[in-house]
Amino acid sequence: MSNILTHSEAGVTTVTLNRLERKNSITAAMYQMLADALTAAAADPATRAVVIQGHETVFSAGNDIGDFLSQPPTGPEAPVFRFLRAIATFPKPLLAAVCGPAVGVGTTMLFHCDLVYAGDNAAFAMPFVNLGLCPEAGSSLLVPGMFGYHRAAEALLLGDPFMAEAALEVGLVNRVVPPSEATSVAQAQARKLAAKPLRSLMETKRLMKQDVQQQVLARIEQESAVFARLLGEPAAKEAFGAFMEKRRPDFSRL
Ligand code: COA
């Protein structure tokens, strides 16, 4: 079965991360499929809202580290950047149902969703510094904007995980529900949106986002350049080597 499943019903397209054995970590091939699914949903007149979901036990462990090392993103047309541009500019209502770990892009993609419903087991983390990297998906701009600077520093400099209730408090999620209900709550909200006039929804979303849209795209590009440079530096090599060897990284000399 595919690692990305799409299903459309009653005006709602649901995109499911389906790679449970690897904690829904995302490969280049999956980024490509996600970008294609969003592009198709944007163009499809029958799609009026999109829900992104994982599994009740895990949303996503972020980039697949092995895949990432074997085919690092190089230019702006790399699948990960295609996905980030597609999600950052997605013109219709975009919802997410998040349960369990949401690491790296598993968290940062949520800043581009309009409504986020979390299971009470959701655990968010943006451990880019711990991997010798820097924020991506515009998160260096969007996290301080949403959390306030000091809480953003906690999330992005320390890379500490935070749970669903904390995410609710800072405004990253709309509602916390039992994990078994997260997808049905997101679906119910998506269907409510799908019953509303699509042009009004799209114009409203465009107006809400227009002041930051260009800034976000420019920041994604800037972050991508820094990220690519850091990926080749010793700290990232140590962090990724440690992950593959299942040991703690040692940054004491770096
Ligand atoms: N890339 C590649 N493989 C991954 C992965 C990732 N991002 N995340 C998990 N996996 C693999 C594990 O290596 C493990 O493989 P194994 O069965 O061959 O040992 C398998 O998926 C199960 O993961 P495990 O760590 O045992 O599950 P867990 O429930 O104990 O923990 C997470 C889940 C998500 C908290 C943990 O896997 C994790 O922290 N992953 C790395 C997250 C990360 O740093 N992502 C990169 C962000 S840029």
Fold and architecture overview:
The chain has 254 residues and is α/β, with parallel strands linked by helices. The chain is globular. It starts with a strand and ends in a 10-residue tail after the last helix. Helix 1 packs parallel to helix 3 (79-88), helix 3 runs antiparallel to helix 9 and helix 5 (139-147) packs across helix 9 (198-231). The strands form 2 sheets. It has a 6-stranded mixed beta sheet with strand order 1-2-3-4-6-9, sandwiched between helices. The chain has a 3-stranded mixed beta sheet with strand order 5-7-8. The chain is built from 10 helices and 9 strands. It has one domain (1-178, 198-254): 2-enoyl-CoA Hydratase, Chain A, domain 1, CATH 3.90.226.
Quickly describe the structure.
By secondary structure, the chain is an alpha/beta fold.
Features:
single chain; 254 residues; alpha/beta; 2-enoyl-CoA Hydratase, Chain A, domain 1; six-stranded mixed beta sheet; three-stranded mixed beta sheet; 10 helices; 9 strands; 48% helix; 15% strand; binds coenzyme A
How are the SSEs placed, and which strands pair?
Blueprint: E1 4-9, E2 12-17, H1 28-43, E3 49-53, H2 65-70, H3 79-88, E4 94-98, E5 101-103, H4 105-108, E6 115-119, E7 123-125, H5 139-147, H6 149-158, E8 162-163, H7 164-170, E9 175-177, H8 179-194, H9 198-231, H10 234-244
Helix pairs in contact: 1-3, 3-9, 5-6, 5-9
